[in-house]
Amino acid sequence: MTGRRYDPDRRDRIIDACLDLVADVGVAGISHRKVAARADVPLGSMTYHFAGMDELLREAFGRFARTISDGFEQRMSEATDLEGARAAVVAIITQDLFGTQRDLVLTHELYTLAAREPAYRELTNAWMRRSRDALERHFDPVTARLLDALIEGLTIHRALDTEAPLPGSVTEAVRRITMPR
Amino acid sequence: MTGRRYDPDRRDRIIDACLDLVADVGVAGISHRKVAARADVPLGSMTYHFAGMDELLREAFGRFARTISDGFEQRMSEATDLEGARAAVVAIITQDLFGTQRDLVLTHELYTLAAREPAYRELTNAWMRRSRDALERHFDPVTARLLDALIEGLTIHRALDTEAPLPGSVTEAVRRITMPR
DNA sequence: GTTCCATGGGTACGCTCGTACACATGGCTC
DNA sequence: GAGCCATGTGTACGAGCGTACCCATGGAAC
After folding, report:
1. Looking at the predicted structure, is the pLDDT value of residue B40 above 70?
2. Interface membership of B147 toward A (CB under 8 Å)
3. In 3D, which of B52, A42, B79 has the Cα closest to residue B18?
4. What is the CATH number of domain A7-50?
5. Residue B125 and residue A157: Cβ atoms within 8 Å?
6. C-beta atoms surrounding B43 within 10 Å
7. I need a surface site. Which of A57, A167, B13, B123 has the fewest CB within 10 A?
8. What sequence ranges are listed for the domain HTH tetR-type (chains A, B) (predicted)?
9. Among B100, B110, B33, B27, which Cα is nearest to B66's?
């Protein structure tokens, strides 16, 4: 019974450590050794639990995407009327959902992988499908898609833009996109 | 006069090779040796022309961002009236500007770097500023920002979504965002 | 034509990497 | 309680890496 023997959460801790490390140094900067050190497991555990870095990354980003879309779904499901749904979207864009720099960085890392490799695109597709389904509880399909794209774009600009956003512009954007004809 | 001696375009060729390689294998997959091989220069030329991988990447992505925003600016400047400007935006989103998978991949790689490191954020900021300036020749500042974000989001979704886009949805989005009140 | 030096070219060193593999441990089955 | 085997642990190896460094080359300055 020496400390770490029989450690059922080990796989999970490795995945968490991997996400933390990717957030810190990027996919470009990770290695089995660094993840092992951060998760406080021996190097051998890496290849025992995961066939390779790719398998580990896919699981890690799968967990990440699920976490984010869970939050999205919950916020949208709390809205009871059109005005509430609009407010929820504004809140998601301006602060609530991607509250941390970490989440924004991880999102971009995932998109970058998805842009190149179909295996990761499955993750982003599932994420997008869930977002759209949540939006379609309140908006027609075309509006839901456009809102989803708008959220995407405004979130990215909020992350990368150093200039202050024009006040009220997010609310205005949601108003225009969801404006009944 | 042995072949390669005095090769004034060498620096440029290295930068081009770097962009090609990043498009192929990602920032995570590059190395001095691989870039040198693709540019057909000896390994020593890498450290001679660039202080390190970071300097090379910054120059490469600087060139890439400038190329894309040049195209954006030109397309927007060709429009002479509101309808033309709207059509230009639709064209930029649906096919023209990010015509190749290569450009989309490189864009995401740049965003990922920018999300983490301020040096790269300067590049994306300059790019965004130019886009907005071009849009402000035809639209008011708030509309220009929202259009810019919409372009961003729809472009990403076009890149990552495997489901076919709803027909006419891009035109509809631009119409709603630019609709005069 | 001599000198100088920016540029090109090759190589060796020390490091980190992923992976393989041999051995240890201890819960579970019987 | 004996044996099995899933899991944990440590180490060694070969490959690829960035970098430093030395020599070669040949246009420019004078």
Report:
1. yes
2. no
3. B52
4. 1.10.10.60
5. no
6. 13
7. A167
8. 8-68
9. B110
Alpha helices in chain B (DSSP H): 10-25, 32-39, 43-49, 53-78, 82-94, 101-116, 118-136, 141-160, 169-178
Distance of alpha carbon A22 from its chain centroid, rounded?
13
pLDDT of residue A165: 81
From CA B131, how far away is CA B104, in angstroms rounded? Answer: 17
Write out residues in chain A with pLDDT < 70, as ranges: 1-6, 96-99, 180-181
Could you report the per-residue pLDDT of A12-33, keeping only the tens digit for each? 999 999 999 999 999 999 999 9
Structure tokens at A106: 């991880």
Q: Where are the domains of chain B?
A: 1-50, 54-178
Q: Which chain A residues 86-145 have CB under 7 A to strand C?
A: none
pLDDT digit string, tens, across residues A67-96: 999 999 999 999 999 999 999 999 999 875
Superfamily, domain A58-178:
Tetracycline Repressor, domain 2 (1.10.357.10)
Q: Which of B61, B108, B120, B163 to mutate to test the interface with A (most CBs of A within 10 A)?
A: B108
CA distance B139 to B137: 6
Amino acid B3: pLDDT: 42
Looking at CATH, the fold of the domain delimited by B54-178 is given as: Tetracycline Repressor; domain 2 (1.10.357)
pLDDT grade for B167, boundaries at 50, 70 and 90: confident
| B contact test, residue of A110, A133, A176 with most B CBs within 10 A | A176
Report yes or no: B72 and B92 within 8 Å, Cβ to Cβ: yes
Write down the residue that tokens 């023209």 correspond to: B96
Instruction: Look up tokens 């989440």; give the residue.
Output: A103
| Domain B1-50, CATH | 1.10.10.60
Please state whether B157 falls in left (phi above 0), alpha (psi between -120 and 50) or beta: alpha
Q: Is residue A85 within 8 Å of residue A138, measured between CB atoms?
A: yes
